Amino acid sequence: MNKYETLSEQLTELISRNLKQGITALPTEADIAKQYRVSRQTVRAALSLLKSQGLIESHRGSGSYATGLSPDADRNLIPILVASSQEYIYPHLLTDIRTALADKNYQIKVHPTENDTSHERHILLSLLEAPPRGLIVEGSKSALPTPNIDLYEKLKAAGTKLLFLHNKYDELPDETCIKDDNYYGGYLLANHLTELGHRRIAGIFKMDDKQGPERYLGAFCCLRDQNVEFSDRNVGWFQSTDVESLEKKQDSRFLATYIREHLSNCTAIICYNDEIAYWLMKELAYAGIRVPRDVSVVCFDNTYLSELSKIRITTLTHKPHEMGNCVAETMIRMLQGIPVVSQEIPWELIRKESDGPAHA
User: Fold this and answer.
1) pTM
2) What interhelical angle do 182-195 and 211-225 show, nearest 10?
3) Which one of 116, 210, 289, 344 is most buried, by most CB atoms within 10 A?
């Protein structure tokens, strides 16, 4: 083995130790030459080898830094647990995460949990057989207590960096999470409707994932702040099993029930997401309720479903690629040992055709 190859292995070990302490900068060429008693030419050759392996990158004027990659390619695979890789919101998000991580030579493997706690547990047990360096998790039924905290604690003890997506469990309050600013989003939609003159506003939200209660809270705190009366009778709640029946069987009976039992004399509805708004508008049409003439409909996510509807749906959106890039960048920093913080991605209102002024 050449001197520079020996030195590159020694520097790889140094990088691994330093990353555990949050140190990404390598010593200067002069310091490396002095510490390992080699020539500057040998140092440059070793650094060049490490750079070709993707383990370091050079910053002009400030030296070399660890990328966070492992020399073992299998250790650069990041598992992602999501409710369902087929669900309408995920393809673009997963593509953005995959692309951003691939730019830094990381790969992802998607594990759908079907938003099922027991399925999530089986996946976590499998991952514990060879704990990954990093794990991105969208919690299953995150609004409820989870019995899987023991496995997350074991993964953390094994050195796995946990990054939560969209939500996180109350039992893991200190973990980093990249999520939508759901409270503000709900507030933004309710405020938009009140500016259109609506005073009888209904809502329908998902109860077993945290995003639902958060979006509900933002919307109805806005009504409270504007002294607009609201009633629990006008709020409907659904759960994961309802969505599963909707997607697999096109069973929208829970939405028909919502219209009969909760809509009353309301002139506007805030929906949990585009998917619910899309199917709800079909049920409204069956019931002879016109959108937006009789009732305005607004929602979250700005997916293709908001365009697919006969009447394009007013919705909230993020800047393109913002969520996926933020998730990838945060995970990379965690693997580099750099401190990170949770972030809430802001929403922007995209007005289309499903909302209008309130009618008496």
Assistant:
1) 0.87
2) 40
3) 210
d(CA 155, CA 152) in angstroms, rounded, equals 5
Pair of tokens at residue 214: 């958060």
* Integer CA distances (angstroms), 122 to 20, 125, 159, in order: 28, 5, 20
Which residue type occupies 27? P
Cα separation, 41 vs 1, in Å, equals 16
Q: How far is CA 279 from CA 25, 267, 286, in A?
A: 53, 18, 11
User: Which alpha helices (H) appear in 57-208, and where do they start and end?
Assistant: 90-102, 117-128, 149-157, 182-195
Preceding amide of 145 cis, omega within 30 = no
pLDDT in tens, 229-264: 999 999 999 999 999 898 889 999 999 999 999 998
